[in-house]
Amino acid sequence: MTDLTTAMILAALILIASIVAVEFGVSVAIVEIGLGVIGGNLFGLRPTPWIDFLGSFAGIVLTFLAGAEVDQKLLRREWKPALLIGGLSFLLPFVSVSLFARYVAGWDLRQALIAGLALSTTSLAVVYAVLVETGLAASKLGKTLMAATFVTDLGTALGLSVLFAQPGPYLGLFLIVSALVIFTMVALQRPFFARYGGRIIEPEIKGAFLALFVLLWVADLAGSHAVLPAFLLGLAVAGVFKRHPEAQRRFRIVSFAFLTPIFFLKGGLNVEVRQLAAGGWLLLAFLLVKIATKFAGVLPAAFRYVRPHAVFTTLLMSTGLTFGTISSLYGLNTGIIDRQQFTILIGAVIGSAIIPTIIAQRWFAPPVHALTAEEIAEIEDEEFEPPPRHVR
Questions:
Q1: Which has more confidence, 132 or 190?
Q2: What is the domain count for the chain?
Q3: Is the predicted pLDDT of residue 51 greater than 60, yes or no?
Q4: How distant is the alpha carbon of residue 317 from its chain centre?
């Protein structure tokens, strides 16, 4: 199959995924992974070098955008419940899944750690979507949930970077360059936007892409991964996007129109249905361990801080998608896990994105007025409304 044929089929799948997501109200990432599975198992599509390259870059872009979504003022204000709920949401599943993979499934230590990281996550995308659709995004509950999700995902990103960093002559360079990239982006953002912002050629997006490519390059030299510095870079410039909402909107358009679909489709292309069927019991076991330990860690803390909605909170904190996929793909691309192990982990990650979300919305959602499409659009418009200018 030629590259052009593959590209044409992927473009069709990306469009179909968008239509299905809109018509059925399902996360487009889940649909893209599902269509990737179909394309790989029914039509013989396989990741090519250019798909691998774009997919790797798209994963870093997703990580950067996730960091940029965090409200720093909210995090400072709600730090105690966020730290407790988010910390337990990461720690217990990570330890429990890792031990289960090591001593029950018989995986080696590095494979078990990848499993623990992949299933320790909470999906920022899923949580945010649910909060907006139910009208909870502006509530104290919604803000606490978003802050706790940040803490959980930060734990996953930190774990992936620290546990799999390979000591060597370039590790120090990786740390220094990462810090310099973050500092430079923050220091130059005001004069850069003043001179080059708001132009059709999008210099600000190109600058962010350059920074992410630098992080990928130096991480590759060090034998590490750029997940954590990309996440911290997004967090550092979150205030920039808040001051320039149109820039954030355009960045999302560029990323979600082409890059991130390649990332999720690539994940689906690596799933072998036959191997998934053969390891079905392990998939279900991983999913049960993740959800059970999420409840064991999050529910008591949720009863303390958000008592009327503790189960709803715990179910949403049990979701996982983006960072789970990133962690699993990292393990596959570096040869730590094989294709069957990857397939099992991706199946568990997708299951954790779907099942807790459905249960939370169907039976445990707070009695809040469900927003119409027009009201959701109004909230998003207010979110991106530029600050008022002072009249001299």
A1: 190
A2: 1
A3: yes
A4: 13
CATH number at residue 36: 1.20.1530.20
At 35, list the tokens: 């269509």
- State pLDDT tens for residues 201-252: 778 888 889 999 999 999 888 877 787 788 889 888 887 777 777 777 888 8
Exposure class string for 209-246: b at 16+ Cβ within 10 A, else e: bebbebbbebbeebebbbbbbbbbbbbbbbebbbebbe
Choose among 291, 309, 346, 333: nearest CA to 122: 291
Residue 389: how many other CB atoms lie within 10 Å: 6
Cβ atoms of residues 316 and 148 within 8 Å: no
Are 365 and 312 a contacting pair, CB within 8 Å? yes
Exposed e or buried b for every residue in 328-367, given b needs 16+ CB within 10 A?
bbbbbbeebbeebbbbbbbbbbbbbbeebbebbbeebbee
Strands (DSSP E) along the chain, which ranges?
A: none
- How high is the pLDDT of residue 378? 54
Contact 126, 27 (CB under 8 A): yes
For 300-387, list the strands marked E by DSSP. Answer: none
Nearest Cα to Cα of residue 128 among 137, 115, 118, 138:
137
Question: Does 191 reside within a domain?
Answer: yes
Does residue 33 lie within any of the structural domains?
yes
pLDDT band at 348 (very low <50, low <70, confident <90, very high): very high
Would the CA dihedral through 212, 213, 215, 216 be positive or negative?
A: positive
What pLDDT, in 10s, does the model give residues 126-182? Answer: 787 777 667 776 677 887 888 898 899 889 888 988 888 777 778 888 889 999 999
Residue 171, both tokens? 């590790």
Radius of gyration of the chain (CA): 20
How many residues can be counted in the chain? 392
Q: What is the pLDDT of residues 267-284, one digit of tens each?
A: 788 777 887 777 789 999
392 domain-assigned? no
Structural domain harbouring 131: 3-383
389 lies in some domain: no
Q: Report pTM.
A: 0.75
